[in-house]
Each structure stands twice: as C-alpha cells, then as structure tokens.
Amino acid sequence: MGKLYLIPTTLGEMNPEDVLPHTIKRTIDFIDHYIVENEKTARRFIKSVHPEKKQPELHLFVLNKHTDVSEHHEFIKPLLEGKNMGLMSEAGCPGVADPGAVIVKLAHDKGIQVVPLVGPSSILLAMMASGMNGQSFAFNGYLPIDKSEKKTALKNLEKLSFDKNQSQLFIETPYRNNKFLEDLLQILQPNTLLCVACDITLPTEFIKTQSVNQWKKNKADLHNRPCIFIIHKTH
Fold it and tell me: What terms describe the molecular function in GO for this protein (predicted)?
C-alpha cells in the first residue's frame, strides 16, 4: 500500500522557503495524488513550492464540510492501489483544526502508514509566543455565535483555565474578529490574560498578551486577519 503524507502549507501569501523545510518539495516531487481542502489554492501552493511539477498530472480530491462521508473511501483508493498520497489543509497543518483528520483516521483503520511532515501550526506558534502555560492548554475551535451561549462558553473556559491552570485557545471567522474582541473585553474578568496572535509568520504578524483591562485601553484592528485567541485566568 501507499503512504499518506501530511503536508503542511503556509499560513498566508508568502515565500514557502521562509517557513517550510526542503522535505516538502522533495515529497511533492514524487506524489501526484492529493486530498485537499480547496483545489485552486492547493494547486497554487504546489506550484509555489515546486514550479517544475506538471499540473495536468495532478489528481486532486476535494475534502471539505460539504464532502459526503461515502466519498472518503473513494479518495483513498490510490493508497490501496500502492500509490503515495498527500493530504493538505487550506492553511497550516492537516488534521489539526482541519477536516483532514477523518482521512487520517481512515488510513489507520486500513493499515496505511501515515507520515506527518514538519510545517507551521498557528495554534502552536501562538501558544509559543503567548507566554501562557505551554504545559497544559486546550484548543476549543469556534465558540457559539449566539451572544448568550458565547458568554456562557467564555465564562466556563475562563473558570477552567483558573481551576486547571490551563490556557484556552479558540478562533473566530476573520470578518467577525473585531466584534469578537469587543465581546471578550465585555465578558472576561479585568485581570484575565488575553493573547491575540494574528497573521502569524506573515510580514503583518501581530502577537500581544496583556490583561483584559489593558486591552480595553489599547485595542487592535483585527478585521479579516486570521487570529488565534488565548485566555488564561490567573490568581
């Protein structure tokens, strides 16, 4: 059987050589079958990393929230036929906060070797730069949109961070970031630490950790910028 290679991509428009090891290009060189989140951006990424790769020879299967579960088995047929495949996220590491995890699970079920490759993870990079507890942290994805439910969720995460000394990470749809920051500043305790990490690895990178009270005095414009938010309630 073939091997499933988990291929990280960049976190935005930038030179891949700045954040990706040569292993990525070497892997793309011998793989023609890919499972990707978006075909257009995947092809653009492959071209940026390996311009010599012949695009017409690529076979791409699109995996996103609209993909039916019945298609997953069809996607991995090349693996079962002995061909290597690559799995790519829209940005960052596949399988982490990404729909690709279902393919990785299926590969394990079928006895297919899974090979994770090194690349940027916005979650880990934000955690590294936050100054918060890297010994214990949890990624919670998106919080509820409903304001009442969001308030309850944030209060619970704030209490959890205090009780377990655990940093709590989450994300929001980029165009809602500024409104989300306002909600955080209204709901969280004044002395709760909040880290905002956006445009990670890009020239416009912005990472800052300070108390909610300090954020109220000095806000940032986060509109349409991919962000990781981290909170930690201290004594």
Answer: methyltransferase activity
CB-neighbour burial class of residue 62 (10 A; exposed 0-12, middle 13-18, buried 19+): middle
Instruction: Write the pLDDT tens digit of every residue in 164-184.
Output: 999 999 999 999 999 999 999
Please, which residues have CB within 8 angstroms of residue 182's CB and are 6 or more apart in sequence? none
**Alpha-carbon distance values, 154 to 1, 147, 160, 175, 181 (Å):** 45, 10, 10, 20, 12
Structure tokens belonging to residue 205: 């990178």
> Binning pLDDT at 50, 70 and 90, where does residue 65 land?
confident
C-alpha–C-alpha distance, residues 131 and 8, integer Å: 25
Distance between CA atoms of 80 and 107, rounded to whole angstroms? 10
**Strands of the sheet with 193-198, listed across from one edge:** 137-142, 167-171, 227-232, 193-198, 206-211
Average pLDDT over residues 51-62: 94
Rounded mean pLDDT, 10-21: 93
Distance, first Cα to last Cα, the chain: 54
Cα 81 from Cα 72, distance rounded (Å): 15
Q: What integer is the mean pLDDT of 62-68?
A: 90
State the pLDDT confidence band at 66, using cuts at 50, 70 and 90.
confident
- Cα 24 from Cα 26, distance rounded (Å): 5
Residue 37 dihedral angles phi and psi, to the nearest 5°: -85, -30
